[in-house]
UniProtKB/TrEMBL annotation:
Region of interest (Disordered), ranges: 1-23
UniProt superkingdom: Eukaryota
Family in the record: Belongs to the UTP11 family.
Name listed for the protein in its UniProt record: U3 small nucleolar RNA-associated protein 11
Amino acid sequence: MSSLRNAVSRRAHKERSQPEARRKFGFLEKHKDYVERAKAFHKKEDTLRKLKEKASFRNPDEFYYKMIKSKTVGGVHKSESDTKQYTHEELVLMKTQDSGYVFQKIQSEKKKIEKLNSMLHSLDSQLTNKHIYYAEDRFVLPALRSSTRYFFL
């Protein structure tokens, strides 16, 4: 009988809305709001715990070259700009090299196109494949020609 009792749908419990007289005290937190807030709180708590644990296991003698290139400003790590400042001559040289590379690629692609086009010349003509039937005598030949579209000898 308990399985039948579980199969019957029950009326959902609904929470009451906030009374008008208590609106001045602010938002009334419902259970689902509490659950959402509690999950977020515990997630932040776990994150902080993991970071503290990671910091406690950190090797004080550990060294990376990025430590040289970064600074802390107000407790926040700021990395120096990794972008190199190029001179005007270097920029002009790079642009000409880039344009030369593009021109070279264009030429190689044109050669590929020409090669593929030269391979296509035989595709323009009609197919010459035909079925050839050999008739036993000349009297059967006209009847075969009228019944089929194939070539006869």
